[in-house]
Every structure is written in structure tokens, then in C-alpha cells.
Design a protein that fits this description.
mainly alpha
Length: 352
């Protein structure tokens, strides 16, 4: 008696699938960010390292805690919350007190992610939600900057880093007088350009040897890390290109009008957190649109809003607010840019 013939298994399209899961994508994003973290530690030393470790640990612990409280299996294994912790740390000043970083990390995950239902349901980028909270709650520490590449950065912390909880941050003036005897203005390239019309050398912006957040490292390095994700097809290059192209175009128009007041397109692209935001934050798969036309509109909107806030707003940086505003508009953008279904007939209004 012959063996029964195996039954064919019929499935709907697509029949071709790549073995890429959420945790694989998120893990590769973490891999892409590791060189940026390493360079940040090289720039700012122990304080930057502690900031990255604390933010990541608190973010992971917060998500795990809420999963346990809700009686669900912990979701920290998908690596998404690790990305949140690293990105939040990279958006903070390297001298930011660690206890404040822990509070911002808890808020970013709890309010920006868990309360919406976890991965796949968050409306905005959780790391930027945490940074927005820190910007509102800890204004002075969020605008306190320290120089990079100072001597002794691998043997001692920046004094304000180890401030005790709910205490005023320690002053860094004596430390700065010792490590930067030639004087340090405390201004970032964006602040110098906005308030004093003083531009920073492009090479410094590319290499990251400037004052700024822990993630305002080498713009060139961030771009290379983004190219790795694009090559692995784990990042939508259209969003990044849309952000950078629209920012360069709009800033170029203003620069042509008055180069004495407005920064050049190169300065706009490589200064502040624009490169970090365009590569790692604006491309958040959950908070960005789903359609091809939508991602172009979304990316362009971020670039335009960034330039407008930088040039005409009260703040010298606008990347965070630009991405958060675009996140809020993402569902609407997806809705109005949905392609017409095959065979669908466009509705025609009947004459009154």
C-alpha cells in the first residue's frame, strides 16, 4: 500500500518572505548606534558612559516592571527599549545629572510607550518624549554644556554628573577652570550662530570636536552608521533624505538672501542634532507614515520645521520639536496619501 500523498499547503500572498523579525531589526539598529556611543565616550569620557548606561538601564527596567504589573510577558527582548535608552542619552548634555536622566528615562518609556500599549502603538518617539520632559522639568541642566576632549575625562566625572537626587546640580566652574584654562564660553555651534552670527568650521562639525549633547558627535560617523542600516534594508532612506534635503534647500534659500545672518546649508546639516534625528529618530517605524508619498511629506516636514524653529524660534535647536510634531501628524499623512485600491471608482458628487 503506497504512502499517502502529502497535501499541498495553500496560502495567500506574499509567498516570498524574508526571515527578518522585529528583534533582528532593532538589534541591528543598536549595532549601528554603538560606534556613535563609543565616539561620545571618547569625546566626553566617564560622564557620557554613565549617562548611556543609566538611561538604558532605567528604560529597560521600566518596561519590564510595567509588563510584570500588567501580567504580560516582558517585551525587553525585542531590543526596542534599548534603542530608546541609548537615543535619550545621546540627546542629553554629557554633564546632565544622572538622577535627572533616570527620571526622564522612566517618563519617556512609561508615558511615551507603555501607556499607549507598547511597541507598535506609541504615537511619538519615546526617547524624544523623555527629552521633551527633561527640557521642561530641568531647563538649566539641559542648557549647560561642557567642552569635549578635555584632559582627565577618563579618570573623573564632570562634577554635575553625580549630583544627589532633588539637589541643585553642582557647579562646574572650578572644574572648567582647571580643564579648560583658555576659557570656555559654554555655547554650542548653534547658539554661537543664532545669537552671535559666528559660524563653526565644517571639519569640526564633521568630526564632532565641539560642545553639545552626547550625540552631537561626528556627523560623518552618524551618516555612515545610517548607511549600514540602509544597506541592510532596515531603515527607510526616503525619510532621512527628505529631512536633510528639505533642511538644506530651505536654509540655502535664506543663506542666499543674507549670508551674514543665516547659516549655510552645510552648517545646517552638520550642526546640532539634525543628523542624529534624521538617521535614528525620524525613521522610527511606528511613528512614521506607512505610504511612499507619506514618508516624503513626513521627512520634508521635519526638515522645514527644524530650519524654521532654528531661525525664528526662541530655541537654537528645533529637531526634537520638529520630529514630535511630525509624529503627531503621521496618521493624518498616512490617511491622505493612501493609494487608491485597484478597481475602486472615484466618487463623484451628484449635482445639487
Amino acid at each position: 500500500m503506497s504512502a499517502p500523498r502529502p497535501q499541498a499547503e495553500l496560502r495567500t500572498s506574499p509567498q516570498l518572505r524574508e526571515p527578518v523579525t522585529v528583534d533582528v531589526i532593532m538589534r541591528n539598529v543598536v549595532y549601528a548606534m554603538l560606534p556613535v556611543c563609543a565616539y561620545s565616550v571618547f569625546q566626553f569620557g566617564l560622564s557620557a558612559l554613565a549617562l548611556i548606561v543609566v538611561c538604558t538601564a532605567v528604560c529597560v527596567g521600566t518596561e519590564h516592571l510595567f509588563c510584570r504589573v500588567a501580567g504580560r510577558e516582558s517585551t525587553v527582548n525585542d531590543w526596542s527599549v534599548i534603542i530608546t535608552g541609548i537615543l535619550l542619552a545621546l540627546t542629553l548634555p554629557p554633564s546632565f545629572p544622572l538622577w535627572m536622566a533616570a527620571v526622564a528615562s522612566f517618563f519617556g518609556v512609561a508615558v511615551g510607550k507603555v501607556f499607549f500599549g507598547g511597541l507598535g502603538f506609541n504615537v511619538m518617539n519615546p526617547a524624544l518624549v523623555g527629552r521633551a520632559f527633561a527640557q521642561a522639568a530641568f531647563t538649566v541642566p539641559m542648557t549647560t554644556w561642557t567642552p569635549s576632549m578635555v584632559a582627565g575625562r577618563f579618570t573623573e566625572f564632570i562634577p554635575s554628573t553625580l549630583t544627589m537626587p532633588f539637589m541643585m546640580p553642582a557647579t562646574n566652574s572650578d572644574w572648567l577652570a582647571r580643564v579648560a584654562p583658555d576659557g570656555f564660553t559654554g555655547a554650542t555651534p548653534l547658539a554661537l550662530m543664532k545669537f552671535e552670527q559666528v559660524s563653526t568650521d565644517t571639519v569640526q562639525l564633521l568630526t564632532g570636536t565641539i560642545a553639545g549633547s552626547a550625540g552631537e558627535t561626528s556627523a560623518l560617523l552618524i551618516l555612515v552608521c545610517g548607511l549600514y542600516l540602509i544597506a541592510r534594508k532596515m531603515m527607510d532612506w526616503r525619510i532621512t533624505f527628505g529631512v536633510l534635503a528639505s533642511a538644506a534647500l530651505l536654509s540655502g534659500i535664506f543663506y542666499l538672501v543674507d549670508p551674514e545672518i543665516y547659516p549655510s546649508p552645510l552648517f545646517t546639516l552638520f550642526s546640532g542634532g539634525l543628523m542624529l534625528g534624521a538617521v535614528f529618530m525620524a525613521t522610527d517605524m511606528v511613528a512614521s507614515p506607512e505610504t511612499r508619498r507619506g514618508v516624503w511629506i513626513y521627512g520634508s516636514l521635519i526638515g522645514v520645521l527644524t530650519v524654521i524653529i532654528r531661525l525664528f524660534g526662541g530655541l537654537n535647536e528645533g529637531v526634537m520639536y520638529a520630529i514630535l510634531l511630525a509624529n503627531a501628524m503621521s496618521p493624518l499623512i498616512s490617511r491622505v496619501t493612501q493609494p487608491r485600491r485597484y478597481g475602486a471608482v472615484k466618487k463623484v458628487k451628484s449635482p445639487a
